[in-house]
Design goal:
heterodimer; A: about 110 residues; mainly beta; globular; B: about 110 residues; 6-stranded mixed β-sheet; 5-stranded antiparallel β-sheet; about 55% strand
Chain lengths: ~110, ~110
Amino acid sequence: EAQVTQNPRYLITVTGKKLTVTCSQNMNHEYMSWYRQDPGLGLRQIYYSMNVEVTDKGDVPEGYKVSRKEKRNFPLILESPSPNQTSLYFCASVSPGQGGTEAFFGQGTRLTVV
Amino acid sequence: RKEVEQDPGPFNVPEGATVAFNCTYSNSASQSFFWYRQDCRKEPKLLMSVYSSGNEDGRFTAQLNRASQYISLLIRDSKLSDSATYLCAVNRNNQFYFGTGTSLTVIP
């Protein structure tokens, strides 16, 4: 079954304590991305990756890091989380090709930073 | 200017009603177009792609107007299970841009 798996699903942490949200896809997609979703602001892209070892900033990259050492995994790293990073986070994997492009989302990670 | 703009609603409609959502996009180089459905606190899931010729999937019809840069979604004979947030999305060079979503509640 085609899947994008994020972990953890829920996380409450304290300001400044480094955390990593993992994302893994089993569809062999080259393109992956991270979004955060906040009320009234919709889905905003944090970082994306066109392929292994290729990452780039999205619209709201401040305070986040990513890595793409292998095709299936695209972890999101918060080195020093702050309360304004409390949000619902989605990882997405995109199928290639004109006309066949579709974004598949993970189940989301609800992060609270206190 | 936002890449994709939608009326956030909410739209509250009775069962059986027809409801239409519109969405505009700002970049004429956008290549492909979609409607996603998102249930409360869950991930967005693809509802349908949108083509210039228009396309229909059961009670759902999507239209694309490239000249005016807008996308529409029509839901006929609304069901309670249609209650959700509907996100408009455009794709350009594998980059997805999403609207903020339109909330729909179908009332018995």
